[in-house]
Amino acid sequence: MPERGAKRCFVALSQGALHLRWQGEGPALVLLHQSPQNGRMWSGLMAELESRYLVLAPDLPGFGFSAPLPEPSIRGFAEAVLEALSRLGIEQFLVFGMHTGGLVAAEMGRLAPQRVAAVLVDGYAWFDEDERQAFDERYLPAVEPRSDGGHLLWLWARMREQRFFFPWYDGRAEAALALSAPSAEANDALVRDVLVAWDGYRAAYRAALLDRERDRILELRVPTVLFYRDDDVLASHRARLPPLPESVRAEGIADRKALIAALARELTEHARERPAYRLASLPARSDGIGLIATEAGSIACRWQGPGPRFELWLPCPVEGCPAPTPSDGSVLLIDWPGQGASERGEALSREVLLHALAAIEVIGPLCGIRAFGAAAPLALEAAAVLSLPPPTLLRPWWLSSAERARLLAGLPDPRPHRAGGHLLEAWQWARDSFLFPPWTEASAGDRLQVGAPAPHAVHERFLRAFLPGPGFADLLSACLRPPPEDCRPGRVLEEHPALRGRDLREMEA
Fold first, then answer.
1. Do 365 and 302 sit in the same domain of this protein?
2. How many CB atoms lie within 10 A of CB 248?
3. Nearest to 60 by CA among 108, 92, 28
4. Which of 298, 440, 306 is CA-nearest to residue 367?
5. Is the pLDDT of residue 505 over 80?
């Protein structure tokens, strides 16, 4: 869903692009997330603070939608955020980080003391060598997609377990946490954060767990407060701290409510006489990737080639599409709402999607459309609305009203299940769609004569169906609605094997 007023952008850096949320105006405040989450975790706090500050919440490299670093490190994360802020014209700021974000915040204060007004940390980690070795061996196991979807249930249980024990794999009473069990909705949000970054988050998370420069806080000369909540897994680390310099203090605090009050106090004190910033708008074109504000939410776009005119590629919401190659020329490829880096749009409709496609022309004028699979019917109408030639279609889905209804009725239930069953339901639907066209009854006569799909391919299709939540059904419904009768047929380069011989006229209104 759109995130309570936050705007989003990609900032081109010397090593990939950094994804960032921002809202409000005033003295700049940077919020840095814990692992394995991303800037989304701060959406509530951003809404609380936007009336007084320009609040920025980046996804650290390797998390969320930010490109990973070749060799992740806390210093590398700090340098990436500092570079992004410079490119946005923000030279002075306050920074608040939690856990991994706290390490990065302290490193930013060490690297750029002339820019940082204050460093505020919720739980500064001080792991010893034995703990780091155990983390290296057990905390971040590689997780490969399995044909039965078992990796998803493992992930669901893993994210729940971190509420019960720290480290999550240590089931001893000594490692027990006095925290409430997560709701299905809360655990679902954490699982989604990992699924977005998938295996890339492991190297980034490992950089925080194995960080050996924890004594950077002894070199800080900017005002710094290390908060330790009584209900935090790092509460005991306060006692591990060495004597701190005059500029740094550690403060015990009861809970999150008390933390927010203390944070407000510190921000008020250190934001005085700091420059105010306002990000009115950001350029859409930035190093081949961008986010365009539309009625359907922020739509992620990637492009290649010099332009100035682009062929718009519309992927199949179920099957995706192949990656463009240099021989394809200047291509503009979008992620549908809820898929890839695009927002999960609310109340999607055919009209909303058409308006979104029209807004994308801010990247550059379009010369045509290429559509794949279920995107074909929408592409016919989009070409007419945008005054473009009839689109090029690959494996178009021409479905009858009965087939559309059957497909939509058979989609997996996106509502979070306490035991994670909704993950397996979406996985099984994605795997079955390789073996039976998803608009059929999956009878013996409908079986496609193909081998078992590779687990990685199923995982990609699972993400397209799962991440949009309820919006996936709305997306398919909007794409598959028959276009107006006066739309000119597109040029079909490849027919779908289960729909050979069908054409647009066989779609029923």
1. yes
2. 23
3. 108
4. 306
5. no
Query: Do 347 and 246 lie in a common domain?
Result: no
pLDDT at 244: 97
* Residue 234 maps to a domain: yes
Pair 393, 489 in one domain: yes
Q: 269 with 300, same domain?
A: no
- Within a domain: residue 39? yes
* Helix 100-111 × helix 74-87 angle, to 10°: 70
Q: Average pLDDT of 135-154?
A: 95
3 state DSSP class of 116:
strand
Q: Which tokens sit at 434?
A: 């390789």
Answer yes or no: is pLDDT of 346 > 80. Answer: no
Q: In this predicted structure, which of 62-66, 429-433, 489-493 has the lowest mean pLDDT?
A: 489-493
How many domains does the chain contain in total? 3
Angstrom distance (rounded) from CA 434 to CA 309 = 35
pLDDT(380) > 80? yes
Indicate if the pLDDT at residue 469 is higher than 70.
yes
What domain range includes position 73?
7-128+207-277
At residue 200, φ and ψ (nearest 5 deg) are -65, -25
Instruction: Kindly tell me if the per-residue pLDDT of 1 is higher than 60.
Output: no
Are 489 and 379 found together in one domain?
A: yes
Among the listed residues 112, 126, 54, 127, the one whose alpha carbon sits nearest the alpha carbon of residue 81: 112
Range 332-357 average pLDDT: 91
**Which of 497, 284, 484 shows the shortest CA–CA distance to 378?**
484
Handedness of CA 80, 246, 256, 103 (dihedral sign): positive
Q: What angle do CA 327, 331, 335 make, to 5 degrees?
A: 130
Mean pLDDT of 407-432: 97
| Peptide bond preceding 308 in cis form (omega within 30 of 0) | yes
Model confidence, pTM:
0.94
The verdict on 223 and 180 lying in the same domain is no
- Annotate 359-427 with DSSP letters as a single string: HGGGS--EEEEEEEGGGHHHHHHHHHHTT-PPPEEES-----HHHHHHHHHTSPP-S--TTSHHHHHHH
What are the pLDDT digits (tens) for 122-144?
Answer: 999 999 999 999 999 999 999 99
